[in-house]
């Protein structure tokens, strides 16, 4: 019997070029983004400029975390304490957490079998809020054309959580460029790794200026290379609080060489995804998530469904795969464990029962595909899952 011995949480090392850039920042002692020598732009300002260019956005801001980027975007578009904000029931804790952090109230929208936001449920709930914080959870993009039409019709401002879709596209448009603001994470398990970190992009000058002020620019916004002109700040600088959450030059130095390699990394993830997907296809009792033609996804993780399986059988699949070295995460657990949790475990936020969503969440099995896995590793992982799902499926 074959076993897998790799680690699902082991990322690739930081590229040598990035290590050298980080060491140079440390030797300079100038780690704070606004601590720059005469004529020096600083790593953070350069990262913002390069990220804006890579995404085709007018403005970019680097911040302390993905969760910070989300909260900063919400504030910058004008969400106030007590406001309701629509968001996905299938997402991770920092998303409702960002809404709660500014005193606003999440309104959860259900998930479809394709693991994207349920547009019918969104339509029904749209009147309850002015803002949708759309989480492209696990890299699944919904029909972004239909979503934009719905937002337009319902007067919803769209903020995108692209923690899992940096580099992905819908009909050629980069994820994060459809909304008023696109937010990204550079935490270790995302598509670029600075330990912790976040980025946001927007084409709206006032939103960009507010975000810069919020992040804690003091009055040094003119040192930014991907921010609007000083005249835009005149209109917002006295009434936008400083909620410090800047990125530092050390992390930006680590990220810039990674940004240059982003496309190649995304292709490497997706190659791994396709091997696992092919290996799982046709397994009795297992539903592969069919990806739409319009979506160019980044396969940094893969999900499949065991729809309507009993908890007991699901538990057996998890433990049998684990015994052979394959770590699957289950979103159906009644109590949150590790990174998985569900809308009804965020008890600070009210939620109505969503039986259809619960049925999907109970069926989702989820697995990371770090780039330290080879294509052969991925084929082996798929064979193990296929065998164990098959064995449990057949058993009475
Ligand atoms: C990681 C993540 C974030 C942001 O996370 P940070 O850890 O704050 O950088 C936001 N949304 C989703 C879905 C995530 O997985």
UniProtKB/TrEMBL annotation:
Keywords: Aminotransferase, Pyridoxal phosphate, Transferase. The active site is at residue 190. It comes from Rhodalgimonas zhirmunskyi. This is DegT/DnrJ/EryC1/StrS family aminotransferase. Belongs to the DegT/DnrJ/EryC1 family. The modification N6-(pyridoxal phosphate)lysine is found at residue 190. InterPro entries: DegT/StrS_aminotransferase, PyrdxlP-dep_Trfase, PyrdxlP-dep_Trfase_major. It comes from the Bacteria. Signal peptide: none annotated. One of its GO terms (biological process) is polysaccharide biosynthetic process. GO terms for molecular function: pyridoxal phosphate binding; transaminase activity.
């Amino acid at each position: 019997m074959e076993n897998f011995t790799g680690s699902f949480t082991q990322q690739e090392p930081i590229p040598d070029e990035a290590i050298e850039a980080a060491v140079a920042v440390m030797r300079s002692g100038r780690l704070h983004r606004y601590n720059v020598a005469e004529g020096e732009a600083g790593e953070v300002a350069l990262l913002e400029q390069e990220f804006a260019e890579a995404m085709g956005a007018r403005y970019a801001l680097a911040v302390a975390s993905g969760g910070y980027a989300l909260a900063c975007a919400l504030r910058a578009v004008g969400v106030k304490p007590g406001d309701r904000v629509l968001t996905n029931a299938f997402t991770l804790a920092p998303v409702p957490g960002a809404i709660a952090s500014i005193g606003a109230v999440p309104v959860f929208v259900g998930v479809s079998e394709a693991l994207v936001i349920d547009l019918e449920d969104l339509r029904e709930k749209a009147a309850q809020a002015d803002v949708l914080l759309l989480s492209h959870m696990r890299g699944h993009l919904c029909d972004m054309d239909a979503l934009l039409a719905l937002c337009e019709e319902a007067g919803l401002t769209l903020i995108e959580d692209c923690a899992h879709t940096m580099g992905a596209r819908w009909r050629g448009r980069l994820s994060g460029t459809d909304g008023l603001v696109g937010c990204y994470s550079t935490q270790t398990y995302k598509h670029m790794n600075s330990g912790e970190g976040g980025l946001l992009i927007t084409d709206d000058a006032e939103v960009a200026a507010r975000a810069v002020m919020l992040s804690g620019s003091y009055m040094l916004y003119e040192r930014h290379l991907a921010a609007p002109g000083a005249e835009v700040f005149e209109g917002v600088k006295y009434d936008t609080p400083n909620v410090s959450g800047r990125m530092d030059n050390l992390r930006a130095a680590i990220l810039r060489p990674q940004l240059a390699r982003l496309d190649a990394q995304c292709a490497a993830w997706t190659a791994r995804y396709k091997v696992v997907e092919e290996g799982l296809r046709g397994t009795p009792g297992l539903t592969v998530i069919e990806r739409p033609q319009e979506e160019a996804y980044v396969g940094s993780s893969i999900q499949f469904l065991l729809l309507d399986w009993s908890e007991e059988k699901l538990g057996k699949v998890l433990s049998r795969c684990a015994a052979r070295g394959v770590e699957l995460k289950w979103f159906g657990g009644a109590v949150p464990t590790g990174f998985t949790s569900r809308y009804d475990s965020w008890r600070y936020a009210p939620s109505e029962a969503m039986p259809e969503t619960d049925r999907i969440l109970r069926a989702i099995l989820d697995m990371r595909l770090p780039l330290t896995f080879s294509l052969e590793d991925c084929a082996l992982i798929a064979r193990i899952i296929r065998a164990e799902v098959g064995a449990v499926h057949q058993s009475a």
